Amino acid sequence: MPRQILKDGADYKNQILGSYENPATGDYEVSPIEINRDGHLIVQSSSDTPSLGTGLQNVRTSIFSDLIIGTRKPTLQMNYSHGIPLEYFNTNILNGGTLSIEQTSGEPNGNMILSTSSNPASICQIATRRTLRYMMGHESYLGGTAAFSIPQPDSEMMFGLANLDEAEEIVNGFLFEYQGIEFGVSRYTGGIRTEFIPRADFNGDFDSSVIDLNMLSIVQITFAYYGVAPIIFWYFDGEHELTTDGKIIGVGKWRILHQIKYAGTSDKPHSTNPNMSMFARTKNKGNVTPISLKTASFEFGNVSGASSDLDASARSQNYIIPPKTINGGATGQIIAAFRSPFNVNMISSYDGITIGYDNFLNTITSKLMKLSLINDGGSTLTVELWLVKNSAITGGTFVPVLHGDSILSISTNATYSLVGGRRLDIFLVDRTASEIFTFINDQMLLNPDYTALFIGFATHNTVTLANKWKELF
After folding, report:
1. Which residue in 265, 314, 336, 366 is a FRET match for 457, CA 20 to 30 A apart?
2. What is the spatial distance between Cα 13 and Cα 232, in angstroms, rounded to a whole number?
3. Beta 72-79 vs 297-303: how paired, if at all?
4. How far apart, in whole angstroms, are the C-alpha atoms of residue 391 and residue 417?
């Protein structure tokens, strides 16, 4: 029987083993292969790389059975160590519901908590303004942590992916959820909960009854589209495996809780829109006992291929808004205000049922890349330009930019208040140096319902302003 030889006296820690036959000796040699701290295989491509043996415990394949060697490209990552960044969320908090940071000994501990009150109609709900933008042929994912309070009848607690209608109700979604006192996973399609699979009916090879749902669990949802690709719900099992001499192999395993094997089983897509937000909800539906859901962090994005043209950012669109010439007029006048609309017109139906809303929530974020400002004269005074995000504006008419596929609208006759706004930059331009170009460098991201204001301080000057924007899909 061939001998097993451990090459190079390697330590088992943070390694897994692959074996191959040495043609010179006929022996099967065991070669240590490194894994990272998340338990993912570190792959190196070379002509003498040994074949991967049965010792591989954490090799991940995509929904399409490809070995995952592409880079994960997160669209959004977030934790709450320094508070809740509310500008990234749409919220629906009513009847005593609360959104807060958990305290330990009077200090924030990093958990965000969604809680209801004793009001039977209490709700606390959040959804990210930025969405996961699905890439055809690639796997999309959401990973995060969640802990649920003791469940109560006539209530629901949810964590996962969803997109919403104008009334803040779920249109499409893949979710871990409690319906009353029963835990399971669900799929929503076209405004209808088309599937709820209770824990007892999970089809994964892991006994989910051992999971303490009151503790923070690391969970993941992976899916692809093409209309009917699978949807997989994962749980990270932190139990370590040991060698015979007590050394740790790996850092735990991803376990499949349930897979919705949707391909070839329906003539309808599993969602009417695969671009979704991170979504969490606690809701009383007659229940009068407060419930809560905790989460410490999440990320979502796509698994990208090796080619740069498969990068998620390559799917964004650049466009330049043609220059606009506006008389500066009175001091502090808005030269231009841009808004990324919260709703876009849409009527949707699924399975013959028309969904009862006329507007669909916008899921596109716009980023200001560059601006050009020219003071065309009329005075030797300096033109001062403020770039302000999210100031309150009143009046005025917003009209579509109508350039390419831009979703932005523009107004040149609104009035503003700096209440709630944030001044990002000030630019000064005079007649002898009348043009300025600058990059904004990630400061100006317009999530839906956000505004960017260009406020000019000059009298009797004409200003020409041009912008370059990028829409992030």
Report:
1. 366
2. 30
3. antiparallel
4. 6
